[in-house]
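Input chain follows. Return structure tokens only.
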Amino acid sequence: MYKKIDQKDIDFLLTILDKEDVVIGDDINEDYAHDELAGEIKYPEVLVFVHTTEQVSKIMKYAYENNIPVTPRGQGTGLSGASVALYGGIMLCLTKMDKILELDEENLTLTVEPGVLLMTIAQYVEDHDLFYPPDPGEKSAAIGGNINTNAGGMRAVKYGVTRDYVRGLECVLPNGEVINVGGKVVKNSSGYSIKDLVVGSEGQLAIVTKAILKLLPLPKKAISLLIPFPDLALAIDTVPKIIKSKSIPTAIEFMEREAIIGAEEFLGKKFPDNSSNAYLLLKFDGNSTEEIEREYENVAKLCLECGAYDVLIADTDERNESIWSARGAFLEAFKASSEIDECDVVVPRDKVAEFVRFTHDIQSDVGLRIKSFGHAGDGNLHVYPHKDDLDDKTWHERLGKAFDLMFAKARELDGEVSGEHGIGYAKSLYFVESKNETYINLLKGIKTAFDPKHILNPGKLYKVN
């Protein structure tokens, strides 16, 4: 059993933090009791805002010695409950550790604290003609959260995911010790990669207090193609052929008309086209218009041969912005229309169409409206059951049935429970069901090696108590 917070613990926290950085009990805002998709409401007993690695280290050492659970927290934009304090204790918020520490243009690295926002990083490096490729939809997320969920985003099909751009980390272990893993070196075969274990660990193994990120030269030009199709199945069936053509776009997104209409209403502005049932949205980047044109001309021709109605070219910043701002608003538009939950599965690229068709087919069986969009280029689907006007009991019953069917289908197609949003507590049951006992025991062994007392972000991935 974990220790409950008492006055002695509060007094200790006040010896290393200013009074305004320690929030207790009923003074804690409800925003810190859930993440972006709400779900279960669980408050920490005390919320602390840290400013330095030293403060994090002292708090973790004290919590470890006193068996107090600690939940790391960033901007709270997660979608699986990974930053929710299921067992109370201390919520350790890192949003005030938000400094850009170093830009190393010779080694093409950026060193940052965990609270720096993704959009801040993107703008800062772009001002220096550099490029940080990971591009999750939520630009107000902090880099620490991106690292802990190994966030992907729309550019993953060409550039990869967050793990591919983390060169080094400074981490505080559950017992308060500080370690540095990785660094500015490009290659490293010196033992186990602790860095790569921490990336994607959802705050269960260590708290990231500094990150060294890999950068690339900034592409000088980007052109997008909006490609309308008669139906979604035809659109998605075209994606493996695009990949096979070897003209790899920066992004390959799929969307349906209803999602576009919802985004138009939410943003209060028109999408370039909303007349077709389904679309592929492709982006190509490079250093010249000529280079990009060579890439996209073959893909455009291929799409028309596969049944596309047209290929609409967005070759100005204004046109690109109008398309991608709408794509970025899909989730917010869904949330504005109804309470929703998310199935964030990833399947092999050639199975995307089959999975999406399956979600359409089960709507009447489960009695829920189910809408989706996603990264067709890497097989990561974002599927959203809508509550609409259902009462809570009916909603949770039908949602459970929908999740059972969708996660079972993902396993059947050799997919995984989460492509980029993580497991947290919300998807832990389905994650454990998708793995055999040997695999889960291996994860538990890794957790125990880092955190023998299981005080750091307990209750996520699988139950530890």
